[in-house]
Amino acid sequence: MGRKKGVAEFEESPPDDFDPSNPYKDPVAMLEMREHIVREKWIDIEKAKILREKLKWCYRIEGVNHLQKCRHLVHQYLDATRPKAEAAASE
Questions:
Q1: What pLDDT digit, counting tens, does each position of 31-41 carry?
Q2: Residue 51 and residue 73: Cα distance in Å, rounded?
Q3: What residues have CB less than 8 Å from 54, skipping those under 6 apart?
Q4: Residue 3 has pLDDT above 60, yes or no
Q5: CA quadruple 18, 47, 85, 91: dihedral positive or negative?
Q6: What whole-number distance in Å separates Cα of residue 28 and Cα of residue 32?
Q7: Fewest 10 Å CB contacts: which of 4, 37, 61, 82?
Q8: Rounded Cα gap, residues 72 and 30, in angstroms
Q9: Is 90 exceeded by the pLDDT of residue 73?
Q10: How far apart are CA 9 and CA 44, in angstroms?
Q11: CB count in 10 Å sphere of residue 77
Q12: Residue 29 backbone phi and psi in degrees, to 5
């Protein structure tokens, strides 16, 4: 009963023994890598949702000045919703 209720424990880094050139060599490492990729994608999705809520709030509060006052949130939201390769190419 030492484990906290509702807190998931997992490795935050990808598996060290995963070989991208031969992913089926170690099935356990392949599944761990797949879980890591899915977890990272879900984190990015949730970050984008939080930014979207902040942007909605900013639009409502600022009214006609939203183009100036919420610009930084728009850029953050667009960066969060773009695919990683496209975001790196635009920088």
A1: 989 999 999 99
A2: 7
A3: 73
A4: no
A5: negative
A6: 6
A7: 4
A8: 38
A9: yes
A10: 19
A11: 19
A12: -65, -35
CA distance 64 to 79: 24
CA distances 38 to 3, 4, 42, 48, 86, Å, are 24, 24, 6, 15, 19
Q: Could you write out the DSSP letters of every residue in 4-45?
A: PTT-----SS--TT--TTSTTSSHHHHHHHHHHHHHHHHHHH
Q: How long is the chain?
A: 91
Question: Which residues neighbour 10 within 8 Å (Cβ) at sequence distance 6 or greater?
Answer: 35, 39
Handedness of CA 72, 80, 17, 7 (dihedral sign): positive
CA distances to 1, 31, 41, 45 from 51, in Å: 36, 30, 15, 10
Task: Report how far residue 87's alpha carbon sits from residue 63's, in angstroms, rounded to the nearest whole number.
Answer: 29
